[in-house]
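Sequence of Adenosine deaminase (Clostridium puniceum).
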Amino acid sequence: MNLINLPKIELHCHLDGSLRPKTIIDIAEKEGIKLPSIDIRDIEMEITAPLECKSLDEYLKAFKIPNLVMQSKDSLRRITFELFEDAAAENVKYMEVRFAPLLHILKGLTVEEIIQSVIDGIKVAEEKYDIKGNVILSCMRIMSVDKAFEVVEKGKKFLGKGVVGIDLCAAEVEGFCKTFIEPIKLAKKYGYGVTIHAGETGIGKNVLEAVQLLNAERIGHGVFIKDCEEAYKVVKEKGITLEMCPTSNVQTKAVNNFYEHPIYNFYKDGINITLNTDNRTVSNTNMTKECTIIADQFNINYEDYKQIYYNSVEASFADFDIKEKLKKYIHL
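Predicted 3D structure, token representation.
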């Protein structure tokens, strides 16, 4: 397979984990933001997590510097455009980018301005390249329930205009779903697609509760359903899609190495899996690298790839017209 030329879809990519190092330096200089260094090699080291992280918490430290330069409308537009430009260069045809608006209010931007700026960046990329995109709004599990309600309410006006989904992310603790039942229920009522980070750090039961309590349609990662029989059964029987990110999972120690990743076993057992980067810069990866890893480790063939691609089309929160267009890039 010529992986670089194959059409690709990405459903799980964090904006603040996917900045170009040079862009960080450029924005910092333009906006007078103090960085620990303006040497691009130093910045690269700060914002790229090692393959041998000790935990998810260590991995998340790489997001500190990017957030400093994501506090203006211009920077958010630029960073979003560049992400889609990079994705288009490796033949990604559709991407759902996610971010937490409340992380970008430090210099006075409103949540609405933040969301619109990201949507604007996507639109510019769509005009220039053969790629389509939408936004998933992330609520931080380390913030209060009221903050989750705020994101849901303020994002509502953008539904159908670039926003398609809601997410819960950040460090994972057992039983977090119970705390966020009401805001996610409201989001579902408004028409948001629901995808929840769960089962990334050893707690398979969180996946079960994300489906049962939050009516999640997709699960970010979901690795640890392998250790929770009930969660595994629910995901398989309900056709819940897993947004899997192999490199990230090795970094955060969800798995010890690529060969032990359960993605291929899930796929062969009929679970809907998709392939994603999670964070292009923090994980030093892209969709072609992720595809290559899976192809090399598990000898997937072109028919397998097509099925994963179609899984991604069907699981996306894109509208009917976009899905039909995406299907035409590759025939099952």
